[in-house]
Amino acid sequence: NTAETMAALHRVARSLLRPQVRALHTSAAMRGDKLYVHRDTEKNNANVAFEFTPDNMKKVEATMAQFPPGHTAAACIPVLDLAQRQSDGWLPISAMDEVARVLKMPKMRVYEVATFYTMFNRDPVGKYHIQVCTTTPCMVRGAYKVFDHLKAKLNLGNGESSPDGLFTLLEVECLGACANAPMFQINDEYYEDLSLDDVDRIIDALRAGQAPAPGPQSDRVAAEPFGGRTTLTAEPVGPGFGMRTDGKLA
Prior knowledge:
This protein has a 5-stranded mixed β-sheet with strand order 2-1-3-4-5, with helices on one face. The chain has helices at residues 2-17, 54-64, 76-86, 93-103, 107-116, 136-140, 143-154, 196-207; strands at 128-133, 167-172, 184-186, 189-192, 215-216. Helix 2 (54-64) runs antiparallel to helix 3, helix 3 (76-86) packs across helix 4 and helix 4 packs across helix 5 (107-116). It is an alpha/beta fold. A hairpin with a 2-residue loop joins strand 3 and strand 4. Helices cover 35% and strands 8% of the residues.
């Protein structure tokens, strides 16, 4: 009836006029905020001078010349890499500012690139930056044994550097050498097929100022199977193999 309908409409109207309360959900602060947030330090602030060396500036100009006029921002990654190499393996904010000036980019655009790619180190690193892959193929082949062994040998935790500035140890995601697991990267070199004895030998050589040979530490070549090849073992056939010789198509 009319009275019941009016009462129902009043209830709906009251519910619409009632203040809406939304629950606020918060998440834990990210421990890795240094990947995104700059904090001024004595060694890393905008007042610390950075300028490309003449040789590196020639490389910057050659890189920029690969792109059409007005699109030199596309050179941002290789130019940041040059700046990082000039700065002993890490990228201070003054270097990022100089990259922005040279490429005529807003500073924020350069910061976005530097904070997105983990290849850019925004804190100082040791002379030997050891990155241990622990993604699935390496993990099942003993990556965490390698990582724990390194932590004990170097007396370092994940992301820490030795007081003498010689080593930085870091756990990273896939480095693309899955067929040669376990492995780690030291600066630009890959060391693969690692045993714990290999780890000791490599670290001891670096401490002694030597350059251990990169690549597989086993007796295999590249990613060939242990024990030699298992396919394509016969002599390759010559040209024309399997072709008809009578000139007919069918």
